[in-house]
Amino acid sequence: MIIYPSIDKLLEKVDSKYSLCTISAKRAKEMREEDNYILSDYHSPKEVGKALEEIASSDLVIDPESLT
């Protein structure tokens, strides 16, 4: 269950739950493989949660063309 960030806030940044899932999974894999983090402080201990926090904070830039 997602508590933070809220699903409503995330869906303001991404157009669908499917896209949100795909983007967060790809970002989590990138963080795990490259040890590359954007934010200085995270609430979540897991990479997927951290990816969702980056999306909610608008620090992760999403290319709309990559979603198609």
UniProtKB/TrEMBL annotation:
<keyword id="KW-0804">Transcription</keyword>
<dbReference type="InterPro" id="IPR006110">
    <property type="entry name" value="Pol_omega/Rpo6/RPB6"/>
</dbReference>
<dbReference type="GO" id="GO:0000428">
    <property type="term" value="C:DNA-directed RNA polymerase complex"/>
</dbReference>
<dbReference type="GO" id="GO:0006351">
    <property type="term" value="P:DNA-templated transcription"/>
</dbReference>
<comment type="similarity">
    <text>Belongs to the RNA polymerase subunit omega family.</text>
</comment>
<keyword id="KW-0808">Transferase</keyword>
<comment type="function">
    <text>Promotes RNA polymerase assembly. Latches the N- and C-terminal regions of the beta' subunit thereby facilitating its interaction with the beta and alpha subunits.</text>
</comment>
<keyword id="KW-0548">Nucleotidyltransferase</keyword>
<dbReference type="GO" id="GO:0003899">
    <property type="term" value="F:DNA-directed RNA polymerase activity"/>
</dbReference>
<dbReference type="InterPro" id="IPR036161">
    <property type="entry name" value="RPB6/omega-like_sf"/>
</dbReference>
<dbReference type="Pfam" id="PF01192">
    <property type="entry name" value="RNA_pol_Rpb6"/>
</dbReference>
<dbReference type="GO" id="GO:0003677">
    <property type="term" value="F:DNA binding"/>
</dbReference>
<keyword id="KW-0240">DNA-directed RNA polymerase</keyword>
<comment type="subunit">
    <text>The RNAP catalytic core consists of 2 alpha, 1 beta, 1 beta' and 1 omega subunit. When a sigma factor is associated with the core the holoenzyme is formed, which can initiate transcription.</text>
</comment>
<protein>
    <recommendedName>
        <fullName>DNA-directed RNA polymerase subunit omega</fullName>
        <ecNumber>2.7.7.6</ecNumber>
    </recommendedName>
</protein>
<dbReference type="InterPro" id="IPR003716">
    <property type="entry name" value="DNA-dir_RNA_pol_omega"/>
</dbReference>
